[in-house]
Amino acid sequence: MSASETVASAPPIAEPPRLLRASIRRFAWALGLVLLVLYFLIASDQWLSVANYTMLAAIAALSLNVLSGYAGQISLGIAFFMAVGAYIAVWLGGDPATTFFVNAQRVHALGLNLPFWIWVPAAGIGAALVGALIGPTALRLKGFYLGIVSLALIFIGQHIFFNAVLLTGGPSGRSFPSPTFGAFDFSQQNEILGIAVTKEQEYFLLILVVLVIFAIFVANVMRSRAGRAFQAVRDNETGAAIIGVNLFQAKMGAFIFSSFIAGVGGALFASYSGYTRPDYWGLLLSIQYVAAIIVGGIASVWGSILGAVFVFALPQILDVFTPPQSSTSAGLFGIAAGDLNAAIYGLLIVIFLLFEPFGVIGLIRRGQLLAQRLSHRAPKGGEPAKALPDSMPDSQFEVESSALSTGDGAQPFAG
């Protein structure tokens, strides 16, 4: 009996869940959890702030990856939907005692002072409803035309936000509410199980929980029928329509889902910042998120997180290690340190676009593939090693192994 026949006749071995399939993956998860706990316990407030802003950026990048990465719809309007979520949050949770000066007259800001557990989900739902209103018109277009329409949302939103003074505070901006649970206020130091935790540590736990929930939810949705419909539309709209995918439902589903995540991300960002002006939600912010998913990895949950780390955390880390006196004076090659950081940051983005279109997650997958080839290399004169399913990118494997590509048992997608 040959080796292959022996393997074929052997009883199937029950495999652990995919997340914990390989021992090295279990070790990586355990190591990551330990490092996360250590970071929470020993990091200073400055470094916790860097982590908090990075996780908030990861939530928004995740929303853009749903629409542009998985569904293939080009969008530059992510900042608009974040702003919608932020201003719905401040309307529902803001303090009505806040006042502004409009035309030399003191006026009260809009605010209902509702609790945290209402205005955070409401921010996502409100942004999703706005997405549902805009989607039917915007999604009639494709490619760059859709990108131009989404770009117009930024400028229309800026005009509205600058003039809705009672809600946004106008050009000067306004303060945003902090999450509260009874007497537990995230804007001040509190005690958890008898241990004093700072504001940064409290937000670290809150934002981490939200990010993990969205990451798991997006990953599961993309493995569902609806998620495969998104990817089918992205890969080939004609082919998707032929096998029964409702293109309109699939695009609208991705648009609304993405808007919901962006709204929640915007609300949490504004709450954590404490004070935001309308000009923050501009075109530059949208471009940064586009860069994040390109650098991190398109159509990948981990790519969204890694892209946020690269685009949003790296400049902050470089600023921390830059001597303050060098920020205005000439540094290396006569370039100011701040400008040098921006140049390095832009150069690395160009390098990724030219040499690794799948971003940081593509580099990791290349490393995994190389390691698997080395570990499964057949001895000299033996049978050639077989390729393993795990060596393929997740999204590619999921699409190619589905009925979309094989044609076996093709079922109409509900979208």
How do the SSEs run, as a string of H and E? HHHHEEHHHEEEEEHHHHEHHHHHH
Strand order of the largest sheet: 1-2
Summed up, the helix count is 17
What sort of overall outline do the alpha carbons produce when their principal axes are compared?
globular
Strand content range: 5-15%
Jot down its keywords.
disordered C terminus, disordered N terminus, 415 residues, globular, mainly alpha
What does this structure look like?
With 415 residues, the chain is mainly α. It has helices at 3-9, 23-42, 45-70, 78-93, 116-138, 143-163, 165-168, 199-222, 225-235, 237-242, 247-273, 283-296, 301-321, 337-355, 359-375, 394-400, 403-406; strands spanning 99-102, 105-108, 174-175, 180-181, 184-185, 190-192, 195-197, 275-276. A two-stranded antiparallel sheet has the order 1-2. β6 and β7 form a beta hairpin. α12 crosses α13. The longest helix is centred in the middle third of the chain and has 27 residues, at 247-273.
Give me a quick take on this structure.
With 415 residues, the chain is mainly α. Helix content is 64%, strand content 5%. The protein has a two-stranded antiparallel ribbon with strand order 1-2. Strands 3-8 form a two-stranded antiparallel sheet. Strands 4-5 form a two-stranded antiparallel sheet.
